[in-house]
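S.,

As promised, the S-adenosylmethionine run. Input:
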Amino acid sequence: MTSVGTALTRTSSTDSSAMSNIIVARAVEDDSASEGISASTPPTSLTDSGSLGSAKATTDTLDTIHEERLHRPKRARSSVSTYNLAKLAEQQLDTAPGSRNVSGLTGKTLVDDDEDEYAAMGSKVDKDIDSSGDGPSKSAELPQRRSPRKLQRRPTVKDRVKKAAGKVTSVLGKRGRDVVQAGKRKLGMHEAEADPQTKKVLKELDMGSKGILDEMDLSDDAGYLPPPRPAKKARLDSNVLQDTKQTVPTAPPLKITSGKAVKKWQQEGLYVGQDTHADPTQSGSRKKLQKKRPTSSASDLTPDNTGEEPTPRKTFMPLPMFKYLDSTRNFTIPFDIYAPSARKGDEKPKDWHKLNRNRLVGEAKELWEKAEKLPNSACVCRTPSEDEQGCGDDCLNRVMQYECNDDNCKLPASLCSNRAFAELAARTKKGRAFDVGVEVVKTGNRGFGVRSCRTFVPGQIIMEYTGEIISEGECQRRMAEDYKDKQCYYLMELERGLIIDGTKGSVARFINHSCSPNCEVRMVKVSGTPRMAVFAGEDGVMTGDELTYDYNFDNFGATKQLCYCGASNCRGTLSKRLNAAEQKKLAREEGERRRKAAEEARKIAEAEAKKNLVKKERGSGWRGWVAVDDPETKEKLKREKKEREEAQKSSERARRLAARMSGTPMSASKRKASAPLPIAEKKDAKRRKTVHALETVAAPMHEEIEVAQPARKVSHIRTVSTSSKFTEEFHLHEPEVSVSTTTTAEEVREETRLLDENVAMTNGTEEKEAGRGGEAKSGLSRTASKGKEALKQVGLAVKGSLLGLDRNRPALGSGKFRQSTLSFGKLG
Ligand SMILES: C[S@@+](CC[C@H](N)C(=O)[O-])C[C@H]1O[C@@H](n2cnc3c(N)ncnc32)[C@H](O)[C@@H]1O
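Predicted complex:
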């Protein structure tokens, strides 16, 4: 490629556009020259008609511009192949250097009248492309040879701007440096005149290797650089404002844009906030929405094209998607995003004939026609203030259950709030899911039901209850014959003895009953015709809620259907709502029933508490083992024991014991007659009975004086028995006490008293138990028999001994006594 020397300027950074933006400044001698050539940038593609017609366009009048505004110029598409313009320019320069124009191609623009030149250019291009081998020949794509008139392109916005300005501007930014500088000076962007040295540097900087210009970022630091160019739009605006005023004061105002497509940001969807300015109900036409919405741009605060206040862009987090929702974390989808919808495969109601309009059936027709015409109603509501609604609660039409319309209401529809059916008709006309707003779904235990797919404000109409309008007679017949085996009835009283049978009817027939409903059904006369509709209750309806109303069911049959509404105030059955007096009576009865139940519960609780108290007082009788190595504990135990002894001496029991020992036994019957035994004693008495039976065999003269004690840890120390004396020594560890039994009656008594409390001994099982104890067996058996013998001699009998050694530790002196009884008795 031949270098075009210093005259070439590169203004774009991309390869393709770099080539297409080449201009030959050599041909431009001064500012006036630039006027002549105006926007004669070589075509960047075959379809870039803007370039082709540019020369002609500059001569058009403003009138033409105005006309042309009706037709938007087509923009060049980047996908279309472009000429190798550098090469073309090179050839043109070589072949006709003297006749080059600013495009550097032919010395004339492509739309020059000289047809031969045009043809030559076409063949040149063809040849050039073919020979380059870059791809298929583009000759087929070349503009067809046509009259110069036809080749004129429509002026673009830029053209119009230039025209309006009257002189050439730097609209396209594709001028030689001189032209650009001249243009800048014209725009008041004065550049300091560079000295020759600076010019040289600039020249060098402008030149890249191989004659291709590099795009340079020349910072202001250099001192000789022009001030930064204002944004293109600003330049355009200032140009137009300046130049239009001066040169074409009569020109009609032109809408000037930068020519760039404005990025339109989505206003709804996953990544945008929820309360959009757009009404989602109107979202059918994308275009409409776009118009409604303020145009936003990348910045968060961007003034829109309409010149309104900047609209802050919503920066909410996106909705959680995919994996996040699969996790076990509970997540509630915001109501205005949540869009429940029946799924594929969900059960659908069968045998349902949809009927979206009321249909008069049988004699109902006659009744309807014969019926006295309803009197007309008219309201006199005043125009509401800004924060009010027209035709509110005191609207005469509303009170009379009439819907307002243009005949009976003076307010315009937009200000009247009593036009529910009109609103419904407008909303459902489109028939889209959101507008309809409900769907039929299967419930757990109440058959099908109706779910809301959107929100409804309190009192808003949701849907009409339609079906066959029948007479009361027909209703009875259907109940008795047609529906006798049915579980569900869809009959609703309309008025004047007419009934709507929704068996064939609208979706409203599927609405279930609730004792705490979120909707209500009301009759409204629309243009004199009574119609039923379901309205949102006083709390409104949220997306996903099941719609319910109170059936206030008149149950003629004997059996009442159970209600599964689950409300806290559920009446239990699908029955009639009670009036105030009935409710009062019911409440009274309910109160009484509750009071009785509470009394009963209190009694039971008291009895239970008593039982527990007795249990607690009685105790378990087992205290468990206590370690007595600690001297302090030992001391404490001794002290406690002494206190107990003191207390017992003066106790009733001690007196009785003393009485017995002194030979005045109390019979069991007498004892019974006296003060009742404490529970522990009762238990002991039972045990004594057993003991007594044994004793009867062994020592019939014996009188029991000892009772059983729970096992205690006892160390047997020594048994000494002589003919006159029976001594056994043992040590009781809990409570800490050393016991020495003696043969004397006094000593035995004393021991007995001590043992009464502390020592556990076996009765009757001693030999058996001891038999397993090896050494203990002989020793203890012997001791026992000797002891008994000795006691006999001193007038005492002993039944039982220090036996019942622990099987695992049979050695004498270290055994643990299990439950055992030591009985002493006086020989008769
Ligand atoms: C007008 S239909 C409602 C739609 C009905 N669930 C269906 O599947 O066609 C009335 C019937 O629904 C059932 N139903 C409605 N609400 C109910 C409730 N709260 N508890 C039990 N059954 C109910 C009863 O069988 C009743 O006769």
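The mean pLDDT is 61. DSSP finds 27 helices and 20 strands in the chain.

- D.
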